[in-house]
Amino acid sequence: MPVNNAVPPPTLPGRLRLRRGAVFVVAAALLLVQMAVAMVTTAVEQTPTIDEPVYVGTATVYVQRHDLRHNPEHPPLGKLVIGAGLLFAHPHLDPAFEGDQAELGRHVLYESGNDPWRVMLWARLPVIALTLLSGLVVLAFARELAGRTGALVALALYAFSPDVIAHGSLATLDAPASGFLLTSVWLVWRARLRPFPYLPLSAVALGAAVATRMSMLPAVPVVLLLATASVRHAVRTGRDTAPAGGARARAWPRARLLGLAFAAAAGTALVAVAVVWATYLAVDPRLRWTAPADLPALRGPRALLVDHLPLPRPYRDGMRVQFGFEDTAWQGFLFGRLYRGSLWYYLPAALLVKTPLGATALWTAGSAALVAVRRLRPAAPYLLVPPALLLASAMTGSRDLGVRYALFVPVFLAVAAGCAVTARGRRPERAGAVRRGRPGWAGTVRRGRPGWAGTGAAGLVLFVAVSSLLTYPYYLPYSNEAFGGPEKTHLRLHDSNVDWGQDLGRLAGRLRRHYPHDEVWLVYKGAGVPSAYGIEAADPRTVPAARVHGLLVVSDTAIDKADARLRALLATSRRIDEVGHSITVFRRP
Description:
alpha+beta, four-stranded mixed sheet, two-stranded antiparallel ribbon, globular
């Protein structure tokens, strides 16, 4: 009798599960495609921001000369990522060039025969790719905590975040560092069930974060503590670490358990340190380094910290440079007030202005759910403590220059927001129905028909999406509707929140199309070279006011920080146009 080996068709519940899985994959892909289009479009249209030429020039030197001398205040990994794109752009660098890092960036982009548009696009593409990969981490982390619906909520907040899109499309370090740190925390969370291989992988990601931005250092002790907590949980539940004979972990002596947790933390730290060393050796295997002559001298706890960290000398000298920046009194601007120094509440206030209102609501609801919902409570320290500690550290800094110093907040809280859908309020199921669940990393993800929590989350996500799409492609100057939208951001914030020099190319196009015969006077805040984009203009502050006639074009940050001379020129001029919500065009009779 012949044997029938045909696979039976899936049952109705099986088909429904397959359909839901397909819908989930398609929805996630569409969100990431939308984000990719937004970032690539932004990268194509924007000219270099203030920091980018330094990073691009330094990355060029890394790739072509294997020299660590430039930009020591930032570790090499982020610039190696940028350099990966430059391998395809092949920028020319004069072998005889000798200058500081600002001169280097100008030389590479504008004085060596390179096409600045092409070089900048290739430099930005690897950062865009990393930002999209971080979106997959957001999706995976949230799915483990809150199921597919929560994962899509989290990814939507991340993919529509104007700040993440704005900085994820630049050849800078903020987005890669935040993504590496989130990856490290996600992997150490997964180590609760399987310490190996997730704990070593978490250590690699932690080292990558620290090797990208020194501002990630305060998160290291937190991740090490989380590593000990994950290993202790794995031991108590008998995962991968049960003693010989199969005994459950609760039989372990306390001293042995503490020793294992300490060993896990020590191993994590060693791997992270090794990653930092590897990034420097990747640039220069001989690790040649001469400390800058103007390196700030440190005393007290700062000196003790820098002298005893087991990190390469260039890294520790870069920390000295950063501490020197912290001892400088910078200018800040908040809600129309120009001041010197820093305000402890600057970053929370700036985040309030620049975060979509729906995202703020979902961040709050998701964070509350992490604390209130019993099965999610173990994840609260993983998702809430690292960004809280880093934000507190950044709030003590001296540079009130933008929310980019807290970009990790929208990255981490996007995952937390996905947990908002787990709040109580599900519609009751039919009497006698069996609850189906899928074992998750925090417990069981209960499946039922979403009630007010899911419906409310969907409405808030839609609000965020509309707000984000309406600001396209001007993501950098975004502010939410409560503060007047992107066209009003310059009234409340400055610098990289609004005007970071990104619209010089757009200004060139506007002048060429609408004002081809007008005399142009330009006060530009940025690292671009106006003449490289066809803008022929003089600085009105260098001539008597009576000679300034025609178009007066001023960066909005320059307006916020205007001295008496520029204020007098603006007072006798008429506003006629704006470019990218970051540059204002006046006509002066």
